[in-house]
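Exercise 3.2. Students should predict the tertiary structure of the chain below and write it as structure tokens, then compare their answer with the key that follows.

Predict this chain's 3D structure.
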Amino acid sequence: MDPASRPVKLSGAVMAHPKRMKEAQRLADADAKGRIRVTVDPDPEGRPTALRTALVSWGCVPPDATHHLVLQDDVLLAEGFYEHAERVASEVPHEAVAFYAGWEARNGAVARLAALTGSPWAYTLQEHVPCQALMLPADVARGYAAFHEAHGEGWPYDVVVQQYLNSLGIPVRFTTPSTVQHDEVPSIAGNSYHGFRQATLFSGKAVEPSTYASPRFPVVPFYQYGDARCAVRRGTEWEYLETERYLRRAGLHDRSTTAFAAAGPSPLPERVSRAVWLTGFATGAVTAEAPEPEPSVAAAVMETLGPGGLCEDYTAAELLAMAPAVRDLALAALAEGRRAGRHGAQPAAPAPGAARVAVTGGERLFGGQLARLLEDMGLHAGHVPGLPEARDLDGVSSVVHVGGTDDTLLDDVLAAAESAGVERLVYAGSAAVYRGSGERAVSEKEPAGPPSDAVALAWWRQEERCRQWGERSGIPVQVLRLADVVGPYAPDSTPVRWIHLAWTRRPLSLNPRGMHQILDYRDMADAIGAVLAAPPVEAVLNVASATYGEEELAGLLADVSRRTPWERSEEAGAERWTMATELIANGPGWRPSASVVEGARALAQWYACDIHGDYDVP
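Answer key:
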């Protein structure tokens, strides 16, 4: 028998809190065959979390079930939903299926693309799995509890599910339009601060899909947390970047800017109208080759674009009042983007004679991201992972080495750079070289000798290796002492560790006297670009985007990830030094310009979702 046509035996559960038993029972009773049971939080007086009930809901799969469906108690179902779920299980028996895509999520943007291109299905991005209504093959559902117990560690429920399915290589598809809607009730799990949440596109009646083919879009423009961004697929990985930067890469930025100016004033706030335009224009550009979308569908999905991007900043009434203006502007941008995409584009290219830059060291993904950021600045840049040889640096003018504790790697980079005849080395080091400096501002003239702190000493020794190599080889060397980086793929640091604690609901122990400097990942690239564009005059330069007190930084990181309790600690030894950054401002002329909040949010999103790996769509 064809596996796709085997009989389906569906079972299911509604995850319920005792306060919502009436709503949960209504969802279960909607199944005329009585296959859905209500499972209740085993500790309803405990800290609100979906994780406890999830263990019960995924743990009640009957022995003869082929598929198991779990609903949350705050959803509404389309007419014919359970029959629809059975048909889907029969057609795609080995995949995970989500029946909801929220307008506030990256996957809501995928649903928008699916609707505009006429596809009733799409595969999710690498993001938390939409768990409002999720169906799994029964054997997969039975394995959830063991994975949860071994790997849950306090992560949000939808992230644990994503990690679990990734570990099995199971893709997640979702329906467009959604056949489940998010109900307008307060979040018992404490997620109400995420704001008014609904589906990107909802159908009140579940119909037979015209096809079960499911695309995965290589570029997904999305509007989230007030920012216009794009997800760009690179192999099995996703890069997330500002939509303006994507449009520059695609050679469409000037057309977008000109068309936006010609569109005239909008009743929306300037920042909102610009982000809406960018998202609509990029959406049009990436769907330019698809047939013209059905007007009512285009209007519906563009009307939800603004609420999805702004739901944490505005009330439901405010969002609904803004929606028509968002729709009209987004539709105009969509049409302009489609025209621009059809007429072709001239992708940006490095300026003639631009210096070729090689990025070495650091983690593979971090180094690759830095090279792309430098490329976006007009430099001919590339990443050389692993141990480089002279041929890897052939034609390279400047090497940017991301420092660390691997002396062997550094020695190989220096040897290859010298053999290749590079003209310059920029060593991207760490502000940790100042550890143990006490309560004061520190300048690039320090430390005068080997530091006593072991971590500081390790960084200082790498700097010394570079300086001594430069004196011997005659190749100019500049050292950048970087504050803790925030952004995707960021190396281990206080912000990374605190993000982990916040996501896994572990308390932070904070010293109110502590001080921290952080560096947005885009500011890091801009600073390196500014240094490479200026003569190599200064041997050492401090680089930081912003300075925060310990509690202030903890609050920022909690706002972009998950709110978590913290405890005050008055222990002695809190780091209070801060780097002076006047030298890089007065010399190469660099000053921070990126939004640190955006950088911190990008770090949090990466750490919760993308760090756990991706799967290939079969």
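Discussion points: The chain has three domains: 1-215, 218-348, 356-610. The two ends are 21 Å apart (CA to CA).
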